[in-house]
Design brief:
Layout: H1 3-13, E1 17-21, H2 38-50, E2 56-59, H3 62-65, H4 68-85, E3 90-97, H5 101-114, E4 119-122, H6 128-135, E5 141-147, H7 153-156, E6 160-161, E7 164-165, H8 166-174, E8 183-187, H9 195-201, E9 207-210, H10 219-226, E10 233-237, H11 239-242, H12 250-270
Parallel strand pairs: 1-2, 1-10, 2-3, 3-4, 4-5, 5-8, 8-9, 9-10
Antiparallel strand pairs: 6-7
Length: 272
């Protein structure tokens, strides 16, 4: 999927919501545990209930790896289900990979070729040759961790080297890499006040913003400081939507929560 196609979906649906599919078997409705593949059945119900309200799905790969081969099979079934039934969706493998060149190439093949995700999250710590293998894939996107919403973000990301914060150096340096037009960036919603400076460095890039909702980030603040002419934002929300209920009405309640976010987004877009 191209960024132009993603922007068209945002305008069509009046939404820039990405629903995180982070399935924890201890939190899903108990009746699903009796099915052959509880993870997939949960995801399928959430997807069917929310697909018209969001533009993206973002499975966090760790939640599938934790369940071994059955988890991987559930992830494969989930991405296949999205691609076959809702091909207009922008899919994100939230895997936070990053390693030396040939290893990164294998990670990229796994997510872009074998599983056919549109994008994958990548950690930039090892630099250019750990990221460029992902960027080599046409119409696929690499979402680079820039400034995250967790407490430990202040350990490294905001530290200054030669008077400039590390996250700003990551943003500026990444723009020099081959095929950097395929980059997007992760910026935590709890760091909304940083978005003005970030937009000065990457004015046109899409930003994936976790932390709205359960983590306390403000959608209006994120949009005020981070939105560009093409919107340029994907707001990732997981727990507040997918775990809105742990009863048999879980999909219905997930839709209600997604609808609240979509309506707020539609209002913001109308006033853009």
């Amino acid at each position: 999927m191209t960024t132009q196609q993603l922007t068209e979906q945002i305008q069509l649906k009046k939404s820039f919501l990405s629903v995180g599919l982070d399935v924890d078997l201890t939190k899903i409705p108990q009746h699903l545990l009796e099915t052959e593949d509880p993870i997939f059945e949960f995801n399928k119900a959430i997807i069917d209930a929310t697909h018209d309200l969001c533009v993206s799905y973002k499975p966090n790969v760790a939640f599938y790896e934790a369940y071994g081969i059955k988890g991987w099979q559930a992830l494969q079934k989930t991405i296949n289900y999205i691609n076959e039934n809702y091909p207009e969706m922008f899919t994100i493998a939230d895997a936070k990979r990053g390693d030396i060149g040939n290893t990164s190439s294998m990670y990229a093949k796994a997510f872009f070729e074998d599983m056919d995700f549109d994008s994958v999250t990548v950690a930039p710590y090892m630099g250019k040759d750990s990221v460029e293998p992902f960027l080599a894939f046409e119409n696929k996107h690499t979402i680079l961790l820039a400034l995250t919403s967790n407490e430990g973000a202040f350990d490294f990301q905001t530290q200054k080297i030669d008077g400039k914060e590390v996250y700003k150096q990551v943003l500026e340096t990444s723009k020099t890499w081959k095929n950097s037009e395929n980059l997007m960036y992760v910026v935590g919603a709890t760091k909304a006040e940083y978005l003005t400076d970030i937009r000065k460095i990457v004015p046109d890039s899409f930003l994936l913003i976790p932390g709205v909702g359960a983590q306390g980030g403000s959608l209006s603040d994120v949009c005020k400081y981070g939105m560009n002419a093409n919107v340029g934002l994907l707001i990732a929300s997981s727990r507040s939507i997918i775990y809105a209920s742990n009863q048999k009405d879980f999909a219905e309640k997930a839709r209600e929560e997604a609808l609240k976010m979509q309506q707020e987004m539609a209002s913001i877009l109308a006033n853009q």
